[in-house]
Amino acid sequence: MQKLFIHNTLSRKKEEFKPLNPPNVGLYVCGPTVYGDAHLGHARPAITFDLLFRYLKHLGFKVRYVRNITDVGHLENDSDAGEDKIAQKARLQQLEPMEVVQFFTNQYHDHMKSLNTLPPSIEPQASGHIIEQQSMVRQILKNDFAYESGGSVYFDVEKYNKKHNYGILSGRKTDELLSNTRQLEGQEEKKSPMDFAIWKKADERHIMKWPSEWSEGFPGWHLECSVMSTKYLGEKFDIHGGGLDLLFPHHECEIAQSVAANGEEAVKYWMHNNMITINGQKMGRSLGNFITLDELFAGTHKLLEQAYSPMTIRFFMLQAHYRSTLDFSNHALQAAEKGLERMFEGAKTLKGLSHSEKSSFNITDIINSVYEAISDDLNSPIAIAKLFDAVRYINLIKDGKESLNQDDLNAFKEFFPYFLVEILGLKEAESSSNNLTAELIESILEIRQEAKNKKDFFTSDLIRDKLILAGVEIKDGKDKTEWKFKSA
RNA sequence: GGUCGGUUUGCCGAGUGGCUAGGCGCUGGUCUGCAAAACCAGUUACGGCGGUUCGAAUCCGCCACCGACCUCCA
User: Fold this and answer.
1) Which residues of A spanning 138-197 put their CB closer than 7 angstroms to strand B?
2) A329 touches strand B (CB under 7 A)
3) Greater model confidence, A63 or A89
4) E strand or H helix that includes residue A26
5) What is the pTM of this model?
6) Are the C-beta atoms of A299 and A306 separated by less than 8 Å?
């Protein structure tokens, strides 16, 4: 089996991936907070970890992929005294909180499907795990790493740091954190500004709240991931992924909570995808510079020169390494669109190739280089570059300038679409055409051919112009005329 | 201010000591009634200044600029 190396944020190095309980692999990824439209930034972790999920399965692992839906616990303001984000939005729109949750969850699912990401094995909701979260609060209290104050329960970072290492993931030091912490309102209840809520008392305006021995309230944001990952993957599991912006404080707090409750770190490999930038700046909800996936697919945002298909978006992301920032621009997206088309054309051409007596180049080397790339910390840009090399060979074989024997060609024909579709998750959009449309176009093209045969180029050009206006692209080949719908 | 990361050819984006990344664009060519498309070929860059080395985009030092996190954020 090909060895897989992944970059572990904990060690800041590439490490060989060795599952705790082979052949099973536990993968947890921080999912969306469902209170607003999903934007381009949300697509990145989804695609990054979809690639990981697909590749792990390809390697023969039995993967349980858990991705949560955050539907409670996010706070609107700086301090933990803020209002639950979902509750506030609900009040503004006169909707039930769970109605908002359902709406954006459905929308997220639709988008993820169009990006061709596989659904996770389990998609737990935070609101469905209040009991478990309360139980973890009790456990942390019992182990004396938290304290109750004014109906809320706070994690005692200083006390924790005396026995363990708060900052093990992010590289932060508690004294630095202290000197840099802003003075915020509503912090009086905490012993230290570093402390974070694991249970928060709700004020009377708060809609989403649950009873507990401490107060009517709701669990702290960081708690849900600790609880749900433990519940479905065990106290120790293989991979935890998420956006780089969650590294601190979210993931640091998760580690602290797990250690405080269970005595040991839960995660073996931490993986973080980098940000999408726009004009060199992070795309983020709070910065207001984000482009939603709806806008992208429809081309409606003012920065967009055209619509971009979900597959273009996926390919665009895969052409950059997941740990690098990726800058959005129309130019880059258009380049991705054309490149992807070239890739699909290559796949189509490959299908129709026939073999020769002997091979003029080594296809096994190319295939191996693709797998080597993807095994090296999911280096999809290198893998794609190798696939483009393969496309060049496909076209050269078609032109009779290179050749493959039967075995080699069969291996090529098996490998190429498999890797493209099953591993990279790139598939051509289903054509909107049906048989009737296709037959009609074929008929029209036959008439055009008749005109061409009679050298009636006025008529043949007229037909071509009309078809182009209708969105049908004409490609006159040597023997026959090919056509396709112009990509939207 | 602290911590971490980045600066690659027209654009996007890989690459960690010697050997063409790749895509888009551009230029040339093939095919074609023309066009379009497609295909083939060409397109050698690594922020600045020093250092290490036979040899550096790649290692070290300094400087400049950009960004992320430190507060909700994928």
Assistant:
1) 170-172, 176-177, 180-182
2) yes
3) A63
4) strand A24-29
5) 0.92
6) yes
